[in-house]
Amino acid sequence: MSRDRHAAPLNGPIASKRGFTLIEAMVALAVVAVAVVMLAALVGNEPAALRRLEAHRQAWELMGAALEGLRAGQIVPTTGEVDPEPWLGDEPVAEDVALQLSRADVAGRPGLMRLELTATYRVTGRSYQKTLETLLWRPPP
Questions:
Q1: Which of 24, 55, 83, 140 is most buried by a 10 A CB count?
Q2: Worst-scoring range by mean pLDDT, 11-20, 39-48, 95-104?
Q3: DSSP category for residue 18
Q4: Residue 8 belongs to a domain
Q5: Rounded CA gap, 83 and 117, in Å?
Q6: What string of H, E and C letters represents the secondary structure of 29-96?
Q7: How many domains, the chain?
Q8: Is 2 inside a domain boundary?
Q9: Best CA proximity match to 70, nearest among 105, 101, 47, 26
Q10: At residue 45, what are phi and psi to the nearest 5 degrees?
Q11: Pairing of the two strands 112-123 and 95-105
Q12: Least confident range of 1-10, 88-97, 100-109
């Protein structure tokens, strides 16, 4: 097995194609820098997003607890404000939490009420509102 005499020498045009040029390296570095900046912006917003999600979850839990209080007879189903304090827990994430109950009797169905429970709260400087609608039946007096 002899060596091919017609092979290209190592110092010819093939040898100059090995490695990266300075421009290619700078473009790659710029792409990596943009990706790092975008990731830093995403990570920087994460605590506010987590706080907002936790406030939304607490609002739904608060409305669920108030609904259970309505079903159990602990809350009188009348239109007006409902005190959220018994269900807020130790460390509420949301600020200025308010619960509003709306009641409408269903025509032709004695004892059947249409209830709308609305939670209004603020978190990270923005106001939010969640609404829950349900039917509740109580035996007519």
A1: 55
A2: 11-20
A3: S
A4: no
A5: 12
A6: HHHHHHHHHHHHHHHHHHHHHHHHHHHHHHHHHHHHHHHHHHHHCCCCCCCEEECCHHHHCCCCCCEE
A7: 1
A8: no
A9: 101
A10: -85, -10
A11: antiparallel
A12: 1-10
